[in-house]
TrEMBL record:
Keyword RNA-binding: yes
Protein name, UniProt field: MKI67 FHA domain-interacting nucleolar phosphoprotein
Region of interest (Disordered), residue spans: 1-53
Biased composition range(s): Basic residues: 1-15
InterPro entries: Nucleotide-bd_a/b_plait_sf (IPR012677), RBD_domain_sf (IPR035979), RRM_dom (IPR000504)
Localization, UniProt: Nucleus, Nucleolus
CDD domains for the chain: RRM_NIFK_like
SMART domains: RRM (SM00360)
Organism, scientific name: Panicum miliaceum (Proso millet)
Gene Ontology cellular component terms for the protein in this record: nucleolus
Domain RRM: 55-139
Alphabetical UniProt keywords: Nucleus, RNA-binding
Transmembrane parts of this sequence: none
Amino acid sequence: MGMRDKKRNQKRVLARRTAAPRSGEGKDFLPLEDGSGKRTRKQLQQPEEPENTATVVYIGHIPHGFYEDQMKGFFKQFGDIKRLRIARNRKTGKSKHYGFIEFESPVVSAFFKVAKIVADEMNNYLLFEHTLRVSLVPPEKVHPKLWKGVRRGFIPIDRVAIERKMHNKDKSVEEHKKMVEGIVKRDEKRRKRIQAAGIDYECPPLIGVIQPSAKKIKFDEN
């Protein structure tokens, strides 16, 4: 008997052992793996459920008056809150009625996932005549700048101070000349619109100086 015949007989014996049921097992016995160590078709069709590691929750339809302090006091019953942010208007600082909460840990115990419990329990929750919209945010979809500046709080832009600073700024000759040219162009357009409307009106002439005037009084040291 050659080597090929021996290998062929060994394969037949292994095939019979894997096909025949062991003693004490019923007829309905189904091996989890075949003789080659591969998974069965049923196992391949059932995808493994990925572990839920989400810690960020999106909250929409936030009612008026339910701000950072109120949200912290309400949602801390589910777990320790790491960071909280409400979207606000940059000009006015008013709430945009949606925000995000990040919890310290995704899992408190083996069967208690904080963010998932919050999303399941608080979604469609009626609060101050507003139905909250709560959902999980996967880690890969969390924007890298989502929590930028959250520690110092929201500081709205003071537009009045910016305009005041620009108005009180000493202008150079070129800046003053450009400003005068803009005033003259707007006045010419205004005159044309008045004439096109058929109104007989004599616009007063513009009075001003080309050279910029100093807005601050400067005294000589001498």
